[in-house]
Amino acid sequence: MLAIVIVTYFSERVIGDCLRSLQDAGAGDARVLVVDNDSADGTIAAARAALPAVEVVPTGRNAGFAGGVNAGIAAASGCDVLVLNPDIRLAPGAITVLREALAEPGTGVAVPRLTAEDGTVHFSLRRRPTVLRALGEALLGGHRAGRVPALGELVVAADAYERPGTADWATGAAWLVSRACLDALGPLEERYFLYSEETEYMLRAGDHGFAVRYEPRARAVHLGGEQATSSRLWALATANRVRLHRERHGRARALAMRGAVLLNEAIRALTRPGRSGAKHRAALRALVRLPRWPEPPGAADPPGYVCFAAQDWWYHNRAHSDFQLMRAIAGRRKVLVVNSIGMRMPVPGTTTHVTRRVLRKLRSVAKFLRQPFPGFHVMSPLPLPFYGSPVLRRVSALLVRAQVRAVCLALGLRRPVMVVTVPTAWDVVRPMPRHALLYNRSDRHSAFPEADAAVIGAMENELLARADRVLYASRTLMAEERELTGERACFLDHGVDVDHFTRVADPPPDLAAVPGPRVGFFGALDEFVVDIGLLERLAAELPQASLVLIGDATAPMDRLTAHPNVRWFGFVPYERIPAYASGFDVAIMPWQDNAWIRHANPIKLKEYLALGLPVVSTDFPELARYRDRVRVAATPDAFVAAVKAALAEGGPRPAAELRASVLGMSWSSRADRLLELAEGER
For residues 93 and 155, what is the distance between their CA atoms, to the nearest angstrom? Predict the structure, then answer.
């Protein structure tokens, strides 16, 4: 009998593909157990959607990897157990081959060949850890030391991964353990929490006469990568190497191992300055303190979150990613959203609607601090956005910082995670104590027409250099800035509130009174973003259709509303947007062709798809992944033609399929990923 045990923790993004790979891999009638470490995202729903027969074993807490595996083993009495990480994708026949390898005499553990998605082999085989090998790795580096068996723990010889063989131990992303081995060894050591538990178990298996057998015909893709980019996880893995040596060889030899590992991390911290050496500096701190065992989750209060938003909660569309992410996080952490402090003082003759902008900001400031939802606080500091003057810039930063600090003190936010979207917040947060700094790089704000490009650009560069993580919603922008951000860059796609964006049968009466068919748009009508000329042409060339526009406008609308078939509803509250959009026959995204749009990833697209609407859009890079669901037009002529085709034929796929394509893109899953990046959770 075989049981497959997969330990999950906020694994909604990856668990489905893992489970879907099992049957072709040779799972047969094996029991499949997902042991969940109290995930608060859609992990369980995603697992059941991918494999309805899956058995869910909840631990009720974050029990760590070993605790989760032990729970799975306990629930699979009498079975051999295949332990998988949720980011493993087994190749066809992999389980069958591993079971054959496990049947070899004397074998207790069988492991596959692991590769990256591009086929690059992972060096997953290891030699027994020794002080000499730790010193070799410190002085030569892991790969160079690995070429000499006495000096390196990592097996790097290419031919070792081409033929079957044995190893002292192997990375524990995928390993099949025999029932005889499980019965002889007992459970994994849970006190490590993460890392070294599989090392200890496989070394213990060797002590009991059970071999760890490598079988290259069994293949698996391992996504992985979090340890390499997370300072917290790197520090934990490094410290656990010393703990493992202490438990197996005593305090004296552990002291020598600690010195060797300290040397390794110190060399890397010195030779990799800046952010690239951050994980090594974190490891040094962990090795100096080195409590006997890692602190269990929950022993320390988790940090709160302070988000410097690019919008204002009280008058902008609340669908913006800042607000959606923070609302999702507020279910688990205390959150303070700081309304936009702006990028420039409105100037008559340059800025549109100056009086209205100033008045609405003053009304927002008058609210100061409110709590719209439990755990979710919003404050509107009084800013002085004179960023062109160095003196006034410092005065403004001091003023805003004093207000934010006072509110943080009142809310008990001592060392929060700072999430910065608007670059002018850099002056405010720079000296503030914090758990981590995340730059939510939603746009290149220095390209905004009203911004002082030099001043705002300098702030952006400071954030790109100093942030612990830089979060991108645009792959294009992330690629352009990769040299500045390196491994700190992370793609965090936008989500969608699928429950909110559900089609209703009857649109509001004022929309129902508009003759159909209706071509619709909702969102801010800003000339810098929306091609008003294209909208005007659409109205002129489709006189039989109504052009419905919903949203606040910073552009003059007279030229559009002069057309008899154009209906502009103005600002509509977020809560009512789905009802209005349900009355669209075709939804449009008529964007300008500029740098701002080329770096954009509109949330609106997913909202349209969640409503099952046929979508027509001008072209931009992030649209490449949606071309099977969206009609894309490269020219105004093509745009008009695409709208006509959508009115006549509907969407490229049925409405139900369009909606289903975004069901897994919840804001909750995006918030889970943000928590992982900010706090180093696994």
Answer: 25
- Structure confidence at residue 11 (pLDDT): 87
> Residue 453 — φ and ψ, nearest 5°?
-55, -40
DSSP-based three-state secondary structure for 562: coil
d(CA 523, CA 580): 12
> Cβ atoms within 10 A of the Cβ of 195, count?
24
Phi, psi dihedral angles at 529 (to 5 degrees): -110, -45
Q: What is the pLDDT of residue 110?
A: 97
What digits encode the pLDDT tens for the residues 524-547?
898 888 999 999 999 999 999 999
Nearest 5°: phi and psi at 57? -115, 100
Task: List, in sequence order, the alpha helices (H) in 10-81.
Answer: 15-20, 22-25, 43-50, 64-74
For 538-547, b/e burial (b = at least 16 CB within 10 A) is: bbeebeebbb
Q: Are 592 and 639 in contact (CB under 8 A)?
A: no
The amino acid occupying position 51 is L
| Separation of first and last alpha carbons in the chain | 30
In order, the DSSP letters of 319-343 are TSHHHHHHHHHTTTS-EEEE----S
Check residue 226 and give its pLDDT. Answer: 62
> Beta strands 174-177 and 80-84: pairing type?
antiparallel
Show the CA angle centred on residue 33, arms to residues 30 and 35, nearest 5°: 160
Specify the pTM.
0.57
Q: Which residues pair with 522 in a beta bridge?
A: 550
User: How many angstroms separate the CA atoms of 610 and 504, rounded?
Assistant: 12
Give the angle subtended at the CA of 93 by the CAs of 88 and 95, to the nearest 5°. Answer: 60
Q: What are 116's two structure tokens?
A: 């990256």
CA separation, residue 193 to residues 61, 233, 243, 427 (Å): 12, 11, 12, 39
DSSP string, 2-28: EEEEEEESS-TTTHHHHHHTHHHHT-T
Q: How far is CA 385 from CA 74, 340, 588, in A?
A: 61, 11, 35
SS3 88: strand
Reference 273, options 478, 486, 489, 490; nearest CA is 486
What's the average pLDDT block by block, 10 residues per block, for the chain (682 residues)? 93 91 94 89 88 91 89 93 96 96 96 92 95 94 93 94 96 95 93 91 96 96 73 87 94 94 92 74 88 71 90 81 90 89 55 69 90 91 77 88 94 92 91 92 75 83 91 90 88 87 92 95 90 95 96 87 95 92 96 86 92 95 91 95 96 92 82 82 36
Amino acid at 68: G
Stated as kind and residue range, the H or E segment containing 521 is strand 518-522
Residue 56 has φ and ψ, to the nearest 5°, of: -100, 125
Distance CA 10, CA 675 (A): 10
Whole-angstrom Cα distance, residue 525 to residue 678? 34
- Backbone torsions φ then ψ of 441, nearest 5 degrees: -85, 75
- Find the length of the chain: 682
221: left (phi over 0), alpha (psi -120 to 50) or beta: beta
Q: What is the pLDDT of residues 308-341, one digit of tens each?
A: 998 888 887 777 888 989 998 987 899 999 998 8
What is the gyration radius of the CA atoms in the chain, in angstroms?
Answer: 28
> Which residues on neighbouring strands pair with residue 220, listed in sequence order?
90, 114
Whether 600 contacts 448, CB under 8 Å: no
Residues 6+ positions from 304 with CB-CB distance below 8 Å: 333, 334, 335, 336, 411, 412, 413, 416, 417
Amino acid at 669: S
Cα-based distances in Å from 425 to 265, 387, 393: 33, 11, 11
What is the C-alpha separation between 607 and 592, in angstroms, rounded?
20
- CA-to-CA distance for 677 and 10, rounded, in angstroms? 12
254 contacts 212 by C-beta, under 8 angstroms: no
CB proximity list for 619: less than 8 A, separation 6 or greater? 632, 633, 634
